[in-house]
Amino acid sequence: MAPPIESRSSEATGPAPVDDLPMVARQGRIDTASRAALLILAAAALGLPFILQALGSSYYLSFASRIVIYAIAATSLNLVLGYAGLVSFGHAAFVGLGAYATGILISEGVVGGGWHLLATVAVTGLAAAVIGAISLRTRGVYFIMITLAFAQMLYYLANSMKGYGGDEGLNIRARSLFGFGAIAYDLKNPSALYYTALAALGASLLALDRFGPSRMGRAVVALRDDDVRAEALGFPTFRLKLVVFVVAGVLGGIAGALSVNLQGYVSPNVLHWTQSGTLMVMVILGGVATVWGGLIGAAALLLLQEMLSAYTDHWEFWTGWVLLAVVLFARRGLVGLAAGLRSPRARTG
Amino acid sequence: MIHRTLQSAAAASLFASTLALVGGAAFAADKVKIGLVSTLSGPSSALGVDIRDGFLLGVKVNGGKLGGLPAEVLVSDDQFKPDVAKQLFEKNIKRDKVDFMTGVVFSNIMLAALPEAYDNNVIYISPNAAPSSIAGKDCNPLFFAVSWPNDAYHEAAGQFANTRNLKSVYLVAPNYQAGKDSLAGFKRTFKGQVVGENYTKLGQLDYAAELAEIRAAKPQAVYIFLPGGMGINFIKQYVGAGLGKDTTLLLPGFSADQDVINPVGSAMAGLFNTAHWSPDFTNPANQKFMAEFQKEYKRVPTLYASQGYDAALLINAAVRDVKGKLEDRDALRKALKAARFDSVRGPFKFNTNQYPIQNYYVRTVGSDGKGGLINKSFNEPILRDHGDAYVQSCAMKG
Amino acid sequence: MPSVLLIEQALNGLQFGLMLFLLAAGLTLVFGVMDMINLAHGSLYMIGAFLAAWLVGLTGSFVIGVLGAVGLTGLFGMALEAALLRTLYARDHLSQVLATFALILILNDGVKMLFGTDLPLSAPAALSGPVELLPGLQYPAYRLLILGVGSALAIALYLLVQKTRMGALVRAGASNRAMATAMGTNISALFTLVFGIGAALCAVAGALLGPLLAVQVGMGENILILAFVVIVIGGIGSIRGALVGSVLVGCIDTLGRTGLQQLFREFLPPQWASAAGPAIASIAVYVFMAVVLAVRPQGLFPART
Question: How far apart are CA B221 and CA B218, in angstroms?
Fold first, then answer.
């Protein structure tokens, strides 16, 4: 009997093993300089609406929100792709489901943010559980194809639903409303949306930071590197992968719910495979299996796009080359580049 | 670790400074700024390109000014994608602080992007798409259609089909708002039997399946609303499938104007279509338009170009009538509604819902005397002083 | 469905399937022999279409245009393989996916820079009319050409893979690469040639479909995914599988969308029926793939031992 199709282990050629990445080894200790830098970053992020207002560029607040929302989606994919090593080519499905769940509720008159959150978590959680349960039984290229297939099925399903716009997309005028009375807080307000997204991103990054060095995190990484060995060692590999898949799916759905609030519009294009591809690009650009990878990748790609398109119509061309260079030469993404600069020993051979 | 977080901090400050540089956009008083978002790439780009060229010509013949104020037109390409159009609208409105938005070709793209204009009290002048929803219950004082109501050409075609005693028709249109409007319009006036109603995917280019169904249904005539590249492909494939021999092909102007005539060629000769404008109109405004357009762009304009041109003329008249005081939105809207300009189509008048009331004509594709083909109109309009069926549901009265 | 309609739709499905086969064949060989996921395969299809449109515009001859495009695209494919893609063979699938995704971006924009966003391409005038196949069934001559070329290439490819020495090497490489190398085949040259043939086949499909669809940037993206579905159904590395898979997928898609539309029209408003029919047909294709994966994971005609 031939060995399983995906018989090559990822050591020699795939994303770098996690041992030499500083984050895990450090067990969460942060040195003073880094803490200062993080505080500056946090202050800038929190103060952004005011800074932009002062500069007269409040148009860019929605751009900043877009970056934050994509960062959440990319981080969720990083969990599945980077930490668990599952090349899911259908992650856009979860982002899209979250967007549609929220969008449909709003179009039916249900504006309560709590309901939107509940629906998003329920729908994406269920979808991820079902898709994961089926797909995780396959490996290698078949896993890629089947996750893609599910995403495409949902894409065509969205196209068929003429009642909710179909391929014309769904326009919504209202947004998610949280709280009541005096403390009501409508995501139609650009600052409110920005802070909500920022909070969600912050929570995700914090959780991911704790997850990496945790027992479960280490188990997941172990099975990414060699799941045959992990299974032999007694890890419940299927269950671990499924849990990670579902959590990532739900987080992706939350990004989707935020994105429909930002755009006021959702169309089946959110579910298209090229969107899954874009998320993967962000993860690899930022750095697989790192806490900040999703954010850095999302920011880098969107900023690159915005800056290049001011100078040339052909920003896709240059973005493609940058990406190619990263894949060929900087396998651990921008985060890895920075870490490698600091300590040559930390690089893989 | 230091490098990594410094990297993040550096990214953040780079971000902020980029915004400072790019975002400090100037807004100028004493200038009228217009954002023109249209479909400038892809198989249906001819439509957007013509709207843009017509609009820019309208500005040019007024000396680069509209209503006496220097005009700045910011042109961008929606790439046939609603989300791109939305972002472009947002950019033009919030960053560039335009006074008017215009340009979109397709109804679905426009419907996705319009809320940006509405939410920021910016007036939208539509040089093309004019869906039934906005003619009726969703009518909005910020929306002006300088073209026609979506249903109109098709209502005219239905009426024309009656005069030709056509008994059975098979209908095809793309599956989106304007497609729905088009066939609803045709069915409103047509008195014969509809033997098939087929909605194709917007942007679809291979019609093998639909043509097979048409053949099986054996209608007397086929009426299609397929603008741009869709129409070009359908007609070519229709001829290729041998359907032209036994079935009459009836068209709205959208599928029979110069952008379709040129690529399809001789198969278009003799086909009848309906429109609000024809290149052979003799009124002075149109004669000037035809001469200037052909001089500037070296091609025959389509009805889309005439609409873009009229949009510029409308804005010109309104800005002139408010003497350049664009901040007074109410006066500006009133001036727009009064529409005191000479349109290339002849007399122009808005209905209470800010959609035009006008004549519609039958045209036929004939020889231009130079070996090519061009549309020629019949003198008598097929529909006279025609509004739309939705105005009663609009809350705006006068 | 009345029989003339059924025959016509079946021919349409076969036509679509054969064109899909041209893409799938190259893809399955590249994947089977070199174990590489190449997302830029659809871009080769696009490049073939653009080159054909450009050459036809330049020379006025459809035949020269198509043949020229096929040759040039084949050469381009080989150059691409030698210069860039061969570094990806040793990498994992994720890296291949990302690198070739980057390539899609580069090639899309590259084509836009050279030719613009779209180019017109018309069928030759001689083939723009119908041919009477049966009384009451007039089928477009151009589509018959596509059926003819597609079938001829399918047979030629089958003979190449099954009956020639090169084909034997390819099959050996697909079924066990390490062993094939050990037996002394010049693997590098073989890979380059296989890639070139795949690229040329894409160009045939792109050039022939150009007049029916539109030659535009990004045209490869939708058909690419279907090609992947086909090779998973047919069996990675198997030409026979690619052929059977594409014809099946072509027919399910084409017959499905019209049949389901007719069915839905019985009880749904026409706009909804027209939206639901094609969507459900597309979903059916993916469900079919999922079922094949569940029941026979190596595909219908597995190439690997």
Answer: 9
